[in-house]
Specification:
single chain
Length: 243
Amino acid sequence: MRRPTLVPVPDLLAAALLALAAATAATGLALIWVARLGADRFLYVSEMGAPEEPTAGIFQVAMVLVSLSALVVALIAPRLDPKVRWLAVVPSSIVLGVAAVCFGIASQVTCTRYCPLPVGDRFTWQDLIHTGCAVIGFAAAAFVMLQAAVDRRLARLARFSLVAAIVVAVIAGLGGLLSLLRFATELGGVLELVATTVALSWLVGLAAFQAVDRAAAARGSAPPAREPDLEPHRDTATESAAA
């Protein structure tokens, strides 16, 4: 039985769009690493988007690509069917769509220089919006990872989804805690980059898996070739013999 999608799309077109989404997410991840390696000082991932940083343009493009990729998967990929009841409360397409919107907002409303913590006079509404959207986006992505981890149809992706969800939740949380405590901030930045890499790698894998699945469905639903109808020739031959 075909699983529902938010936007009905023919299988072959859906496979092409999902493959493009996988490539788009991979490009976004590569750009984040290019920006990080090209920075002239140590930066958190979010800090790379600060208007004063030379990496701001690359960061914004990368986050837009990630947002678009997640949105495409949310709209046209078949809805996940987690076998754990509390994970099925909200459809995966809705949760991933929320993550896509949050990443899109975070790409345009970047934090200010040094991404100040939510304490003190330097923290602004811009920082609050960016940080809030980033946290909600990662939390939503981790929730979809858990949904994929307990979906029977995604057996080949389930183990990686579970590991990715744990890594993103634990490592990103630890990195955020170190940032709040202002302790080992460089380690916290590395942990944030690792969590981002794992999350985006998972998005690439999910989009690619769904693309292969929809391509297989397109091949399976193709109408069989019609066999030539020989009955009229047989009837003519019979009539000739009778005459």
